[in-house]
Design a protein that fits this description.
This is Transcriptional regulator, AraC family. By secondary structure, the chain is α+β, with helices and mostly antiparallel strands. It has eleven helices and ten strands. Strands 1-8-3-6 form a four-stranded antiparallel beta sheet, with helices on one face. A hairpin with a 2-residue loop joins strand 4 and strand 5 (59-63). It is globular and about 60 Å long.
Amino acid sequence: MDERLKLKEKVQHGSAVFPINVYEKIFVHENNTLLPHWHDEFEIVYLEKGTASFRVDGKEYFLGPKEFLFVNCGSIHGGKAEENPEPYAIVFNLSMLFSEGPDICKNKYLQSILERKALVQNKFDDSCVGELISNIITVWKERKKGYELLVKGYLFVIFYHLFNKGYITAGGADRELDLKLEKIKSALDYINSHYSSELDIDLLAKLANLSKFYFCRLFKEITHLTPVDYINKFRVEKAIELIKNTNMSISEIAFEVGFNNVSYFIKVFKEYVGITPFKYKKNIL
């Protein structure tokens, strides 16, 4: 098996027969962030109220009430809550809109988006598209009989508008940018799979086939975080999961998520969450 496929995100969005999910809590509650990540699925982010900022492939976008953001397949994206947002993320495999037999919708339109040969504009204002996205969220929440038909129907109408109104760049992804993204993806994949082990920046740079200096610069350009910041924040998020779901001691958790020094773990946890892991654990008991 290709090593990249083994390392890639293993989250199942929806089910095998209906590969879509609508997520309501996309920010980590403790610090209101969404760490940079990537997946092959297409994603639509919608803000019902409040404000939030997002980063997609190194570019920053600000969303207010009733605004939306498109995240193309394979894009590196993350975000931060600003003022009490109510966000939704519609994540789905584009193949759910394909037919098994000869399919003009697949061949003429959607396959190119799946392969990043065509890209949807990340952010734009269009009340019609916004209403369609909002409708999907409403239908998803209500789950009335036949809701799957309506969800797929709305997705088809959304892509009709995207192509019809010129919100899709037919030329596809910038080759140079995609090469940069692939290098950072290899680092993110490795961190996500080896966070409990010792992680060395030199090794990550070597995996990306870059010098340490250029790797660190490119990593921050794409994610807006240094490699060390990303590793620490990722480990703290894993630690929060263990505090919530296990009876492990704080020391055990520190070593389990890759910190070889408990004092440093406590310091990083407090910087990230605002309180020590001991107090956090006490608060949730």
